[in-house]
Amino acid sequence: MNHHRPAPSTLRTAPQRRHRRLAVALTALAALTVSASPAAAGEPGPTTDGVFTTPTPTDQTELTWAPPQLENPEIIDVSANRRWMRLDDNRDYVLRMPPHQLRGARGISVVGGRNVVLIGGTILIPGGTPDDGISNRALYFKDQTGVLHVEGLHLTGTGMGEGIQLDQRKGAIVQLQNIRVETVRGSQDGHHADIIQTWAGPRVLRVDRLSGSTDYQGLFLLPNQFGTQAEPEVMDLRRMDIRGTWRSAYLMWRDRRSWPLEVQDVWLTPRALHISPSLYLWPKGTTGPGTEAWSDIELGTPPGGQFVPPGTAGLGYVSPGYAIN
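^ that's the sequence the OP posted. Answer follows.
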């Protein structure tokens, strides 16, 4: 989407991580066990108890937020012929990805639904896809009413210009975890590419473990650009690394409203580490030093490497489980 922005001004970073102790709970999942029509031949069929099962342990650190509890959810098998859908606002859904890359323009678009869960899979936007912000986006979610839980996705392809776009005017909580986005492509004169963009809502945004690369923009957070919804209760960003290229611009952008922003263990690699933060962070503080919107940002690569390295998310994904604050 093309964005209108004011002229940049100087902004100081004060990189200082906040560490929170998380109590571990084995409430993770390896498979979705919900009532549905019989599975395709050769695939394990779901049970009918409507809960999530515990996965085989992995060497990853647990994610923060578990999927929502679902009530008699409908399973939708996503395919090349079924990836743009309108759902019932009073029903819960599980979107089940195919065991191969989902390849093509426009990725997945989901409008409506109460609690919606999408775990695992790869979306590839091929080269030659129109650079219009719709054809070249991987994920688009609009007007969920409960909890939207997206986990373990790998978004890729030389034609990708948008990673995840959100239009959430009905009070949803959005959880994005263990996601790898590589690489969104855009330019100042053309399409303004984003790893995550919201222009309406959500009520709560939760991001934990996201690795992304961009040659234009990273997170573009304007939750009240459109619609009449209230300001977010909080946007909580944890364990993220965003990498720019030589021509990347703003890696973090939010409006000047007063909604709370929590930043923990978030790392940026701008086009050059020595440039002014005002060239990759927006906005600056308004009441003096130390009040910058992005004061807890770290520069460089996380000490342990990317939070979602290649092979972690995508095909064959297994959740590492969840922690409880």
